[in-house]
Design goal:
The chain has about 160 residues and is an all-beta fold. It has strands at about 5-15, 20-25, 30-40, 50-60, 75, 85-90, 100-110, 115-120, 125, 130-135, 145-155. The protein contains no helices and eleven strands. The chain has one domain (about 5-155). The radius of gyration is 15 Å and the shape is globular. Strands 1, 3, 5, 8, 9 and 11 form a six-stranded antiparallel beta sheet that branches.
């Protein structure tokens, strides 16, 4: 097993369709996504309930990560692990560009409850060296939200 890292997103304002997470694998080490969780802390109650579409997209090596967000500090599962060889972004309001994006998985999240999705080992999304994957919020809510969450990834090699 490779090194496992957490990519946190903590209390981020979200009001547009955007890449919540994007992971660009380094040139030599592939990455696998183990899972993610996301929640909102703004709207509660029946009247504010909405269903949002999340899209896991694969982009080829000519794709460029988006902008407008931040580059979080990825936290190693084991404190002795080395620094990451991939590049992670969160909350990119300008989405990834270039390449041919393919939707691998659509997810629908009811914002009233936190959404957690963890893959069985044989189905973990693979990011080849140099390639990019994004988890896009394709259908934002009617108003701005404050979101928090975490993506869990494994860097092989």
């Amino acid at each position: 097993m490779g090194r496992v890292y957490r990519i946190p997103m903590n209390q981020v304002a979200v009001s547009l369709s955007q890449d919540l997470w994007s992971i660009k694998a380094g040139p030599l080490k592939p990455v696998r996504i183990h899972g993610f969780m996301i929640a909102q802390s703004t709207d509660f109650g029946d009247a504010q309930e909405e269903g949002w579409v999340l899209l896991l997209k694969r982009n080829n090596s000519s794709a460029t990560q988006g902008s407008g967000g931040t580059t979080p500090t990825s936290a190693a599962q084991m404190t002795s692990d080395t620094a990451v060889g991939f590049t992670a972004h969160i909350n990119d309001t300008t989405k990834a560009t270039g390449g041919a994006a393919v939707v691998e998985e659509p997810h629908v999240w009811n914002n009233r409850m936190p959404y957690s999705y963890f893959y069985p080992p044989e189905l973990r999304p693979y990011i080849a060296p140099g390639e990019l994957k994004t988890l896009e919020l394709a259908s934002p809510g009617a108003d701005a939200m404050t979101m928090s969450g975490c993506m869990y990834v494994e860097e092989e090699g």
